[in-house]
């Protein structure tokens, strides 16, 4: 009998024997997925789970959505090309049409698009090369807590020094600026005053000839820091970053790789602040679950020579068909508004859990991009925020959720934030069940901790 005819344990054993030690998710989510539909996945042992990881936010319409499946089948049934490098096809042009129509007109009226190698980090690398080529400058302004991918240039932008410890030396000059947070404010104060201080810091830094910062090629930021713990940027602060970058002729790059296409309650997260960026990086949801990454940018930056940026798999036609179907479905069915509605419902449930358990330090996010941070009130803590992040508690909650049929991821400081990225098609009834499972998991871990420490 093949190990594939066995259960989870047989497949996981073979995986650990053959895959790199760098594998991550199976260490905390010890199962192999046999089938998946909509918001749920079923493992090799027949157990069903709500999937609030959803390919790290990739599956906007969930698993095997009929419209996406039909679009891919049409490409194959009609003998359309599967891979075309950057040669155009009707499939590609329809994808671009749908993508541009989903973005604000004031952005796309002057926009160009670059197809990259298919991961989000490839779009970030392309965006960095774009602005450095256009401006002739080398340094980049990034932000503390940021995550933009795992390739060399993207790693250089990362705020997590533990992860970037193996970073090659040739990543270029990056200046990490404070990212505003109500719960862990970089200057010790949150709210409106906190983000105004953070804005003033950036404004003064760029105006100071003694700051040590050379003219930047660009500023890159996430409208909501995803891996950083689901930390949303205040709208007013985003507007100020746009004003400051315009004043200094610094291209503003918005990383919408995880936030883009309806997840935050707007089609794109920067629309909450009503700003127009110079560059947007997109991946994950825009490929309909298949690998696809693009950079959309203002035409004034389009000074590349032919062949200046390439990538063999930038012509994935199945991904473009799936992406077109996904974009159209999200827009036609106003799934951004749906995400705002059910996301609000889910957040309110988490806030009710926070009132019951002091281990929950903060509930935050926007739409269906939510985070619940766990803290240790008794631990010594000298960092930002009132309490030390409790990664052990969060890990135990993740495991308790998994045992009860709920898949969640962790992120943020100390991996202490439970992160929720369910498909945008999740229903009100399903988010109620997700919230119930989560609260039961928190209660179980809290009871165990209380019994141990009592």
Automatic annotation (TrEMBL):
Give yes or no: UniProt keyword Acyltransferase: no
Question: Which domain of life does this protein belong to?
Answer: Archaea
A single GO molecular function, which one?
Answer: pyridoxal phosphate binding
Task: Note whether Transmembrane occurs among the keywords.
Answer: no
Q: Which UniProt keywords apply?
A: Aminotransferase, Pyridoxal phosphate, Pyruvate, Transferase
Q: Which InterPro entries match?
A: Aminotrans_3, Aminotrans_3_PPA_site, Dat, PyrdxlP-dep_Trfase, PyrdxlP-dep_Trfase_major, PyrdxlP-dep_Trfase_small
One protein family per Pfam: Aminotran_3
Tell me the segments the record calls region Disordered: 1-23
What cofactors does the UniProt entry give for this protein? pyridoxal 5'-phosphate
What PROSITE patterns does the entry give? AA_TRANSFER_CLASS_3
Would you identify the family this protein belongs to, as annotated? Belongs to the class-III pyridoxal-phosphate-dependent aminotransferase family.
The name this protein goes by in its record: Diaminobutyrate--pyruvate aminotransferase
Species of the source: Halococcus hamelinensis 100A6
Give the classification, highest ranks. Answer: Archaea, Methanobacteriati, Methanobacteriota, Stenosarchaea group, Halobacteria
């Amino acid at each position: 009998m093949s190990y594939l005819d066995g259960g989870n344990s047989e497949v996981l054993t073979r995986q650990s024997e053959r895959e790199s030690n760098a594998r991550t998710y199976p260490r905390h989510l010890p199962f192999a997925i046999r089938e998946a539909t909509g918001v749920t996945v079923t493992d090799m042992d027949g157990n069903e789970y709500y999937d609030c990881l959803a390919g790290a936010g990739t599956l906007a319409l969930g698993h095997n959505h009929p419209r996406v499946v039909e679009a891919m089948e049409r490409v194959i049934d009609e003998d359309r090309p599967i891979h075309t490098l950057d040669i155009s096809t009707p499939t590609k042009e329809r994808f671009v049409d749908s993508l541009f129509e989903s973005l604000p007109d004031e952005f796309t009226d002057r926009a160009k698009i670059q197809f990259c190698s298919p991961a989000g980090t490839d779009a970030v690398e392309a965006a960095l090369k774009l602005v450095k080529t256009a401006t002739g400058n080398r340094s980049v302004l990034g932000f503390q807590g940021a995550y933009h991918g795992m390739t060399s240039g993207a790693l250089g932008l990362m705020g997590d020094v533990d992860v970037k410890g193996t970073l090659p030396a040739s990543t270029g000059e990056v200046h990490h600026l404070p990212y505003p947070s109500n719960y862990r404010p970089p200057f010790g104060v949150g709210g409106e005053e906190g983000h105004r201080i953070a804005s003033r810091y950036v404004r003064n830094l760029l105006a100071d000839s003694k700051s040590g910062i050379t003219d930047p090629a660009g500023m890159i930021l996430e409208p909501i820091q995803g891996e950083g713990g689901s930390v949303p940027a205040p709208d007013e602060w985003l507007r100020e970053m746009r004003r400051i970058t315009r004043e200094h002729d610094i291209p503003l790059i918005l990383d919408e790789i995880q936030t883009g296409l309806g997840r935050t309650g707007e089609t794109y997260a920067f629309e909450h602040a009503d700003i127009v960026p110079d560059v947007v990086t997109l991946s994950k949801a825009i490929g309909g679950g298949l690998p696809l990454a693009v950079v959309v940018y203002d035409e004034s930056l389009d000074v590349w020579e032919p062949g200046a940026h390439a990538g063999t798999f930038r012509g994935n036609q199945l991904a473009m068909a799936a992406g077109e179907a996904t974009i159209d479905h999200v827009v036609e069915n106003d799934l951004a508004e749906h995400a705002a509605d059910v996301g609000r419902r889910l957040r309110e449930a988490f806030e009710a859990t926070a009132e019951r358990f002091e281990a929950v330090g903060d509930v935050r996010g926007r739409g269906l991009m939510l985070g619940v941070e766990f803290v240790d009130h008794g631990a010594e803590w000298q960092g930002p925020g009132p309490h030390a992040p409790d990664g052990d508690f969060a890990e135990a909650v993740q495991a308790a959720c998994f045992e009860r049929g709920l898949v969640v991821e962790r992120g943020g400081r100390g991996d202490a934030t439970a992160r929720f990225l369910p498909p945008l098609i999740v229903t009100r009834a399903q988010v109620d069940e997700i919230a119930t499972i989560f609260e039961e998991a928190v209660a179980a871990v809290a009871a165990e901790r209380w019994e141990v420490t009592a």
